[in-house]
Structures are given as C-alpha cells and as structure tokens.
C-alpha cells in the first residue's frame, strides 16, 4: 500500500474511533426505552403500536386509556373533567394519541411540530402540506386522512341511460337526477348525506353545496330567502322519498336502491367488503356550488401530539416522522391480512396514494386540486364572534322541532319558517349572545 493510501486508512480509523463508530460489523442496537402514550381508549393505539414496533423494536409503550380508566373508577358524584385533568397532570405522557389534552388541561404545553419539520427539513407531499399549513403552529399531526366525497351508483345511472360529467356535478344535478330516476322507479331513494340525522345539520350541508354559509362574516346566523328555498326543497325531497333522512328507527340502508351518497371516502372500504356493493359504485368530488367548486378540506383521522415537557421529544418525533413517511404506507394502507376494513374506516387513508388500489374506485377525488385552494389564513390572529353554544343548541333544536311539525302536517312550511325567523332575529339583535374569540 502506498504512503498516500496508508494516511487515508489511518485517518479513517482515527475518525471512527473519535466518533464512537465501529468500522467492522453492524452498528450497535439502540438502547431500549419506553414511550408513555395517553389515548382515550387503549385499543385505539394498538394497531399503531404494532406498526411502530416493526420499525422501532427497541421502543416499548406504556399506554393509558384515560377515558377508559376514568369510566371504570368514576362514581356518580365524581367530577369527570377534573379527574381527567388530574390524571393528565399526574401521568405526564410523552405522546397524546387521538386525544386532545388541552381540552381538559388548559395550561399544557405541546410541541409545535412545524418547528421540527423545518429543523429536520422534512419533505411534505401535497396532501400533507394542506393538512399541516406552514404558516401556523402544528400541535396535532395526523399521518392519515379522510375526505368527504360523492358516491355515485353507476349501475342505477346505466339502467336509466343517464350520462353526466361526475367531475363537475352540481347540487341541482344531484336533485334532478334523483327525481328523474325516482319518477321511473318509485322504490329508489335519490340521495343521502352521512351523519345528518337532524334537519339543522342537513340544512347546513345542503346550503354549503349551494354556496351558502349559514354564518355571516360577523358570526350572525343567516336566515334569508335563499336559505328558505333550499330548506323547502329539502323538506319536499324528504316527503317524496328522494332524500333519505336517517332516523333512530331507520332500517338498514339499501345501497342498490340509492343513487347518491355523500359521506367520508373511507366508506369505500365497507362497500368493497360487501359482495353486493363491491362493483358499481364510484367516488367523485362533492357537488359544486353555483359559484364553482368548493374547498373540500382533508379530515385528520388520527391526531398525534407531543408533550413539550417530554424528556424523549426527539424519539417521539422520530415516531411521528416515520408515520408521515412513504415507508409506513404498506401498513397504514392495510396491505396485509391482519387488519379489517373496520380499522381502515377509522384511520382512512395514508397521505401517499400513488400505489394504493381500492377495487374499481378511482382515488382522484382524494387528491389535491390546485384549482380549489385552501382559504387564505392570516398569520396574525383574527377576532371572530361565535354564537353562545347553548343558544346554538337551542336554535338547532327549534329548527328540528319546527321542520318535524311540517313533515307531520301540523303546520305549514311558511308558519314554521316564520317561527324560526322570530327566534333568530332576536338572537342576532343581541350582541351579548355572541362570544368574541
């Protein structure tokens, strides 16, 4: 060996010794450590624990299901919220999984993970960038998401020779197609909106698809002629069995006789699991308003937070960073035989979709649409007014009560609308009914 190469070899050896590295054999195993995790129910974390143990075998987890624990020990006279706060302060977790501790413990300090993203130069894909805006703190991060989509029964449309561009469907088209098929087949239901068991919630959703916000910029309740027309159409659709409104005594949904279903995209997992619905359904973007496409935000399905007081912040962040990486996709995407579609409906989808295949479903409706940007967020805090929660509940109850009276033919729609109008006008007129945030 020449003198030059001897010097290089010696230099490498010295550097290795000084840096604590071995030049022979694999690196030493990492020291075992335990991460304390607080979640609402222990089984919610169990799947993620399995995923993380494969990548980080040296880490074990002490998992506390805090709601579970309080439910077991609470007496009828116990202060539920105070006990949860007490346990949070007592346990001092490293990670909070799908549980928001600041709801109970107001002074808790959580890590702004945007600072860690920038510090470690973590690349975020397009979906992650929308879920984790860079211009505000990120105290909660979800490695998975869901999104509202329009499910379309292609079999029914083909049976009735109906063709349309599902990428640009409007709410008026949803109603018109539903009515058209209903006239041809009285057994068919036109549309259903997931999770809208109350008239008030239904009205809010349908107003959105018509480009109408039920709150003004000043936080006041909107109750105008445009909303009146939407509400009357909604009640007429339900009376004609075009709108399927879910009630406590509603029977099971007949997917084969439903034209449209608006709900979380994760519903496709259960559709695929059922042989009767595994073919013939397609997912599209939510209906456009008359003013064009609507911004359709990503729904965080699994919120993860790191305690600012944790002595293992670096290791905790390493876990979160891994779950955000493309490497975790096979497990998060249910590629394997150990996870059920029930679990997938809970977590939704990984933020990398390129290699994800779900039967005949197109995933285009889940991808970011650059033509529909997220609403601009001011870096500075905005002062907003919101209706007192108790009054908001009272309004919701009154809308439900009055619209049920219309359905039961106890009052006319005009009478019900007038009664609700009087209530809302009185609330809007009193500034003390609104909280400044």
UniProtKB/TrEMBL annotation:
<protein>
    <submittedName>
        <fullName>Carbohydrate ABC transporter substrate-binding protein</fullName>
    </submittedName>
</protein>
<dbReference type="InterPro" id="IPR006059">
    <property type="entry name" value="SBP"/>
</dbReference>
<dbReference type="InterPro" id="IPR050490">
    <property type="entry name" value="Bact_solute-bd_prot1"/>
</dbReference>
<dbReference type="Pfam" id="PF01547">
    <property type="entry name" value="SBP_bac_1"/>
</dbReference>
């Amino acid at each position: 060996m020449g003198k030059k190469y001897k010097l290089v070899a010696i230099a490498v050896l010295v550097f290795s010794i000084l840096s604590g590295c071995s030049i022979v054999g694999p690196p030493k195993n990492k020291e075992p450590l335990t991460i304390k995790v607080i979640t609402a129910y222990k089984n919610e974390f169990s799947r993620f624990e399995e995923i993380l143990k494969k990548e980080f075998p040296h880490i074990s987890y002490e998992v506390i299901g805090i709601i579970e624990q309080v439910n077991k020990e609470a007496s009828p006279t116990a202060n539920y919220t105070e006990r949860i706060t007490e346990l949070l302060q007592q346990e001092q977790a490293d990670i909070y999984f799908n549980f928001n501790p600041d709801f109970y413990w107001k002074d808790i300090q959580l890590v702004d993970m945007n600072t860690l993203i920038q510090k470690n130069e973590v690349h975020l894909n397009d979906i992650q960038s929308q879920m984790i805006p860079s211009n505000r703190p990120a105290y909660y991060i979800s490695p998975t998401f869901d999104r509202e989509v329009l499910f379309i029964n292609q079999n029914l449309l083909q049976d009735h020779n109906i063709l349309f561009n599902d990428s640009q469907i409007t709410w008026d088209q949803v109603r018109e197609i539903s009515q058209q098929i209903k006239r041809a087949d009285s057994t068919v239901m036109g549309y259903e909106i997931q999770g809208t068991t109350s008239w008030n919630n239904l009205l809010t959703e349908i107003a959105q698809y018509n480009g109408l916000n039920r709150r003004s910029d000043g936080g006041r309740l909107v109750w105008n002629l445009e909303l009146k027309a939407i509400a009357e159409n909604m009640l007429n659709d339900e009376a004609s069995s075009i709108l399927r409104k879910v009630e406590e005594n509603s029977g099971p949904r007949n997917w084969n006789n439903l034209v449209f279903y608006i709900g979380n995209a994760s519903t496709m997992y259960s559709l695929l699991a059922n042989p009767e619905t595994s073919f013939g359904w397609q997912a599209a973007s939510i209906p456009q308003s008359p003013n064009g496409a609507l911004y359709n935000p990503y729904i965080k399905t699994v919120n993860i937070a790191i305690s600012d007081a944790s002595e293992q912040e670096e290791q905790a962040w390493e876990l979160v960073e891994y779950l955000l990486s493309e490497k975790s996709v096979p497990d998060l995407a249910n590629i394997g035989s150990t996870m059920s579609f029930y679990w997938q409906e809970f977590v939704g989808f990984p933020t990398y979709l390129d290699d994800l295949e779900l039967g005949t479903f197109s995933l285009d409706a889940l991808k970011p649409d650059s033509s529909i940007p997220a609403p601009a967020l001011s870096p500075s805090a905005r002062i907003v007014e919101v209706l007192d929660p108790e009054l908001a509940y009272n309004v919701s109850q009154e809308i439900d009560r009055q619209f049920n009276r219309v359905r039961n033919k106890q009052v006319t729609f005009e009478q019900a609308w007038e009664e609700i109008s009087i209530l809302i006008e009185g609330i809007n007129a009193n500034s003390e009914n609104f909280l400044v945030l």
